[in-house]
Design a protein that fits this description.
single chain, 134 residues, mainly alpha, two-stranded antiparallel sheet, elongated
Length: 134
Amino acid sequence: MALTGDFATLNKLKKRLASLPGAPERAAQAIGPEVLAATNETFATETGPTGKKWKADKPGTYRRGTRSILNRSGAMRGSVGMVINGPKITITIGVDYYQYSHARRVIPTKRAPKKMSERARAAALRAMREILSQ
């Protein structure tokens, strides 16, 4: 399937955005909170970034005081953070034991899933409209 459209206008816009000082960084500042919110939602919904339900806890786990998967003490959920360095956004989880929760993904391992990509795209468009209106 071939893509059609006004690529000349798109290329002009691309060049204009690239020439604006700080545009990629400002886009990252707009996108970052959306990606962080989507990451935090995985805890609330007990689903991975793609929407797949997390694997259930083993019997006996709930005797430890919680009925929420990956939220026994709240330390993991509370350690989710974000670092923006120029145009690069990094979502962090600041507990050592996150590496053992591989059956329950919180952060995408490859590509951002559709829902997260759509949120990031909408935030980037808002930021670019703001930049271009100045």
